Amino acid sequence: MRILNSAKTKFLLIFVNILCSYIFYTTAVIREFSHKEEIDHGKVLPRIWVSKAYDDGIMVIRIIRKNATTSINNYLCFYEMFSLRIINLDGTVVEKNLKLDIQPLNYCVFQMISGGKWMEFLKYFLIRKNQILITYYNATDVNDPSTYVEWGMVMDFDGNISSRSSIGKPFIDNNLQLAIPNYQIVLNINREKGFMRYVRNNKTNHMDWKQFRIEPDGAITELTSGGLVLYGEVGVFIGIHTIDESYAFIFSNSTLNATNPLSPKGQVSILPIGYNQNPSPSLLIYQTTTPNLVFTFLFCDIAFLEVGHVCILTVIIQEDVTMTSGPLYYIKINFLSSGSVLSFQSQVNDLTLPVENPNVDWSVNSLIFGGYLLTGTIPTPTRPNICGYLFNDYNSAPIPWEFPEREPIGIRGVYQILHNNTLLVSQLETDNSWRFQVIDLPKVVGNKDKGYFNVKVESTYPAINSTIRPDIQNVKINFYDPVELSDGNLTIYQLIDNQPYLRQYITKSSCTVSIDGKTVIAKILDSTFSVSGGIYYIKMDNNFVRDKTYKESLLGIRDNIWNFNVKQKEVPFAHSMNGLLRLTPEGTKYFDSLPQENRSNFFNNLLNDLADVIPVPRSRLTSDEKTQLDLNVNEKQYLISIGVEETRVDNDYLSVETVVNDINTMVKSKDLTSINNGQASKYLDQSYGFIPTLDLWKTYEYKLLAIFLIIGLLIVLFFIARRRNSNGNNIAILQLGLIIFDLVIDITFININAKDVPVLYFPSIVFVTVPIGINTILAFYLITQENKRQQFLEWFMAHRKVASIFTILASTDIEALSILYSNLAGFSSFNAPFSDDAKSKIFWGACLNIFIEDIPQVIIQVDYIK
């Protein structure tokens, strides 16, 4: 123990020699942030117990109040209330006091030795906005450590619980018969991907690990898991997240008094574990043949200014006989995810610590803008103090921070470093309030930071807080050093009422890299910035690009940093419009599988999906909830009609034309938009898009012109016939046009439209062919019977061509024979001497046609429209 304490007291000296810093010429202004609790519990003061922060700087701290009744010996217990305080960016504080419905044991912490580290059963982790993971223990018998099980609970800040799941068991100290909550939780660098839990048995060097993902709905999904056995004298051991959104274990082992002088006596290795994968073989990143090594400290993190990761170790050389500590070494290793070591620095300590106290608990924090903050918590009889030293990555002397050399700190020693280099140090609570001392730490990178919280990014187009036209074709990211595309994405969001709406995914297939490798150019869909006057931001995934030289993943740009505006654009008014979408074959099968009463919900879900994606008010999208079979494809696929309602409201979201174009673009590129994530919209066929139902005149312009010309011609012929013979039934010329038009419409409907609705196809054929058959028989019967009369036979022989044509035409409508005796224009060919009996049969035959042809066809047409 004396050796380890000595190591702690000398750790700062090692930092001085290797990490070091240049002098920061800025003077930090010490500020104070305080909050008075809404409820006063008298002498039971609120204590800051834990502090955590989101990447955007919103802090969530836990407040505890000591329960003096249940706190005994090495056990410190709190009142059974999970009290969180949310510190927003504007400085407002939201108090949340939540009942967790967990066993009282979770509200106690204990020390293995007096003055040692507090062991906690209850912890919390920030996952998403308004979604936290709480880990706690449940025991069927609190006196039997074998019954303890660790659970995970996902809840929001209002106390609504999404799920509870068991996630592991604790390490059990059989000698003490005690469950030790020494588990560790490592959040993925992309918190959407969850976390890894691991627990190590220090006596057997056996370690169990599990990966979990927390779904958007709060469900905890277990991914891969396993166990590891670490061989040799394992020293320090930690788990970390990696830039490529995976995990890794880093550990040291040493061999004391080895007889072979050439064999390694000390090693440091990395064991990569891919996301939702099993471990890869361990990779050696450091080894030495120096005997009698003791690794006393290990810190690893992302190398923000460099490439890959960095580890900082301290090593003691232990004397063989006396077992006293010899020289203390500091080791800094920069390495890649592949295990390749980029740089290695080692130096013996020969300086004097600014604080000589064997009980100082030193820790290292890597700063996103470069450098490191070394902090030491110094216990005192009244309250702890904290001292801190800043180092950059290259030079040789530590610089104390701007706080006093020994800054007072709260009883738990809580401090928080935010992503913008703001440092908050908790203070001792003396009344019903709590407070932090606040300073801004200097940025080692200087002017290399351009506001992206990523020192690899030099600039972007659009620039942060700029205003752009809505019709830009691409966005650009300029890096300081050459890069190449990797596996991550760019994602573009629109902010509406501070809520992000996905506009486009951009994969590497839509990107190009400039010749010098320093600029990435990404293509933009026409629909992405269609909401003019809107506020947008672009998120760059970790591992979107990687360093071209080292092939190592680089950090991205987080949400709501790369913000910009789109210029207001006036769009001309357009009337309401309908269009067609097509379901995929799978979507068609899914629709057919739905009960009739659930199909209306499908259309409603589809409109909701489209309204969210575009975005547009739901009231502007309509559907007749009917399907139509598309005969232009080989597989069975339904067409669906969607209506877009016009709007005359000033500054409404989008014009009709824009909505139609956006739906078409997003469906055709649904893999790059949230169309693919919708409950119903995911079934839309991207090869079809959204095809507007064209204007009737534009669609049938020439056909309508032909119809109008024919109608006009018939009207002209009618007046000519009337002028020639006003006593004749000259309206028969229009009757002839209607008979021919009816025949063309019937045949066209059967050939083109009836197949759209299979159940109507056969009836359509029946109610066309049966009347034709009946009319044909009746027409030939009447002509044959009339030819038996001498007067009609003489007319028939004189006008046999006209008589034959109209006899055939009468097969479609028996009333065509009435034209032969209409005395049209006074022509003798239209003055056939039909008998009264024949005229009567023609009349009743026409009436029969109404019932066996016209009425059924009207019913079929109505059903088709429905």
From TrEMBL:
Q: State which residue ranges cross the membrane.
A: 12-30, 702-721, 733-754, 760-783
The answer on whether this UniProt entry bears the keyword Transmembrane helix reads: yes
What keywords appear on the UniProt entry?
Membrane, Transmembrane, Transmembrane helix
Q: What is this protein called?
A: Uncharacterized protein
- Whose protein is this, by species? Rhizophagus irregularis
